[in-house]
Amino acid sequence: MSMLKELEKQGVKIPAQIKDLLVNAPKVHYFNTTDELVDASVGGAGNSSFEVKYDVPGKGEYTEAVVHRVSNGISANYTESYMRRRDPGTMLIADDKPSDKKKFKDVYGYEFEDLRKDTFEWLKGQELAVFMYYAGNYPVGIGGIAIAPANAGFFALGLAFLQKILPMNDLPKGFRLDSAIYVAPPFRHTHFEGKQRVIHNRLDDIHELFSYNLYPGPSAKKGLYGVLITRGEAEGWVTAHCSTVQATNPYDNTTTFMHEGASGGGKSEMLQMVPREPDGQVLIGRNTISGEERHINIPLFCTFAPVTDDMALCHPSYQKGNGKLTVADAENAWFIRVDGVHSYGDDPVLEKLTLNPPEPVLFLNIDTNPNGTAMIWNHIEDEPGKKCPNPRVILPRHIVNNAVNKNVTVDIRSFGVRTPPSSLESPNYGIFGLFHILPPALAWLWRLVSPRGHANPSIVGTDKMSSEGVGSYWPFATGKRVAQANLLLEQIISTPRVRYTIAPNQHIGVWKVDFKPQLLMREYLTRRGNAKFVQDQYQAARCPLLGYELNYLTLEGNKIPSRFLKVYKQPEVGVEGYDKGAEMLYDFFKQELQQYLQPELLPLGRKIIEACLEGASVERYNELLPMEYKYAFLKKNK
């Protein structure tokens, strides 16, 4: 009760259902720092190993995760391989507010209020871990309270890193409980057939988030991302799904990139160095049929400073009215996937930071021993001989080298797409060149369809192309699809000085390229600075959905072979193979765009979508929203 009195003394209004929980639970542990949660993760200061387990009715005692204290932090591993990746179908909506998402009642046939009461009753029977957090970037964002079973300390630690734990005796002036996250892992088994579920309940006074699993991806991270998106939809602003980086060329000119895309689209990778081969060269790609490799020499890379890893606030208070978009990080820590680090030396910067961090960090899906050292290349196996594709580390952003701690203004918004190998014999949509220039109208369309793409390592699913929808953050949004599409279009119209590009990762035709396209794009465009492309350097792409393709590209004296710029130049693909891939892209766009043709859609948005459905040329898209600053005077309702 003393802590409740302290909170009320600071003017924090505590909803009745939360006060009831905290008063009636057998014991409540209040936390003020992540250091306290490090010890809680392993059941106490003297422990080095801990099992997170629950008595599940009808199943008996069930262990969800095994947690180790390691020299560089906390390492948690789930007992089920399914729990090591985010299930994209986790979200349900419990309330009756406007939403295009599935409703809990429609899926399960009864009102969520029944389960809500059962969840609260279960929590009242547990020792609880409780802390205050702030989702966003104070003062833009949402305050909240986390309530979890005390033995789920590692989950609470991840949440406290990501959303910034706040000391309860020193909360910011005016702090409000606008959100709450309740964690009840056994319900995954008793009510949801073992599946991850996250339920949003948007009450008038508080946004409740019920997490029925212990993987932080769909709840502590994407769930609270959804809370931010909900606030933005009500107030008319966007929290973009992107990484942001400021790159500085060897001549001290800085270009700011904002890289968007669906899960696996290269957001975190945009903050990494271009990997070199042992002899210092850069491997552009390897031909998957012939085994041929192509290398280039880059004596000096651009330096860079990371700004955001996955989420960026595009709040109206940040905007400068200069025709560009200004953003700030929406997270307090970064949830970094390290599947690309296979051995020592693959990512020296990240390896150094995680092997000897200035404070403990949280590792997920990394094979460790108690009191040992977690090494980010030592991925746990899902089954013998098969590594988990989604090893992670949660890094507090304040320990990340050169992280920018202020708002930044964006010069280039790029978009990443995971692409499969594509050939005449096996055509697919991997027909992107190294990168393409997009008219703003096409940039908007790509954000509406946001393909999840090939071989996604982060989520449970198939290799087929599927859509993550508006801005690629639609899987986490709770409201209306068209409302978000309108916000994105208004944002693009109001920032006419921003340039747009799109880059593939994994494959360019039959060439395996990993994330090199976006990294080489970063190197090239940073060297160019504000210089415009000369007219003969680009032309309308053979597939108009890809905007403008490059005719030539030279980077530090290295001429990039045309096969990496125009996939139909590859003999294994040719025009016929390319056109079959283009047809697949068109089919995907036609399938996904129909749902946006609602009465609420802005008239300009309707024109752009209808143009696409009619097979518009690149020039037509550029007429609708030109790639010129003068279109700042265009009216969105035109």
UniProtKB/TrEMBL annotation:
<protein>
    <recommendedName>
        <fullName>DUF4914 domain-containing protein</fullName>
    </recommendedName>
</protein>
<dbReference type="Pfam" id="PF16260">
    <property type="entry name" value="DUF4914"/>
</dbReference>
<dbReference type="InterPro" id="IPR032583">
    <property type="entry name" value="DUF4914"/>
</dbReference>
